[in-house]
Amino acid sequence: MSNLDTQPVRERCGGLEEVAAVPVRELLEPRRVPLGESTVVRRLLPNLGRRMVGAWCFVDHYGPDDIADEPGMQVPPHPHIGLQTVSWLHDGEVLHRDSLGSLQTVRPRELGLMTSGRAIAHSEESPREHAPLLHGAQLWVALPDAHRHTDPAFEHHAELPAVRGGGGLDATVILGTLDGAASPGRTYSPLVGADLSLAGGTDARLPVEPDFEYAVLTMSGPCEVDGVRLAPGSMLYLGCGRRELPIRADADSSLLLLGGEPFEENLVMWWNFVGRSEADIRRARADWMTGTGFGTVHGYDGAPLPAPELPNAPLKPRGRTR
Questions:
Q1: Residue 71 CB contacts under 8 Å (≥ 6 apart), including other chains
Q2: Strand 266-270 to strand 11-14: parallel, antiparallel, or no bridges (unpaired)?
Q3: Which of 41, 42, 87, 9 is nearest to 235 (CA)?
Q4: Residue 313 to residue 132: CA distance in whole angstroms
Q5: What angle do CA 139, 11, 242 make, to 5 degrees?
Q6: Which positions fall inside the Pirin N-terminal domain (predicted)?
Q7: Residue boundaries of the structural domains of the chain
Q8: Beta pairing partners, 245
Q9: Under CATH, what is the fold of the domain 20-260?
Q10: φ, ψ at 284 (rounded to 5°)
């Protein structure tokens, strides 16, 4: 998924300054951002005052959108460095192409996981013949310094482990580990991403790691997390220090649970790049604009996205202390 802002702001991410070392209940308001021809997303990370949750550094929630008579998602070829992208659908399909030659249709409750490493380019689009609804989330995971220049890769996992939580709650482990169940997707830091399905009348307590910070995104239906009522499309940041998470729902609903060990490294995130310095970002932009290092995405009917102009202000990571 691309950040299609034509004037993207630099984001100073990572470190421990903004990590809540105790349980909190912080509601994050989304920002509406157009994505391609007919899709508008709700951007929940990065957010004012909250840049990351563990290694999760970018969260877009979109739909459910009626695209029966629309082209749906149309995101031209664009570059990434220093991160992983996670595609997660509840409705519809997304056709993934990348500069490694991958061609894969990702369907609901299947994991599309792309590791950019040192450099990759990809496109995402609704197939020509597609379902009438499109609903899902696109997420980025920052790679730690030791792995940010790793070889690029793409994984598709149609079968993912389930956790039967009892009390009306079931979970699919998208990435990382939850309650002893581990996703087959490759990770580079301790984290978790899970899709929680809540039946009407759910009253459950989900085991979580006290050293992780967490947030939940409400995908559909109203629910209550740790006593906070949430409407669809909202995100609640929860901080650290919990061993279990109370969840209730009067009607069928679903959540994404995101968490991980607080990311201690300081990052610079601009457009579709995650680096450690202004030089990293400038180099990646120049390489993309000159056709160097990212390879070519074949088969997409359209031109690649040009990179926006860099801002006049310096791109600096910000140090943090807890």
A1: 37, 38, 125, 126
A2: antiparallel
A3: 42
A4: 43
A5: 55
A6: 45-141
A7: 20-260
A8: 206
A9: Jelly Rolls (2.60.120)
A10: -65, -45
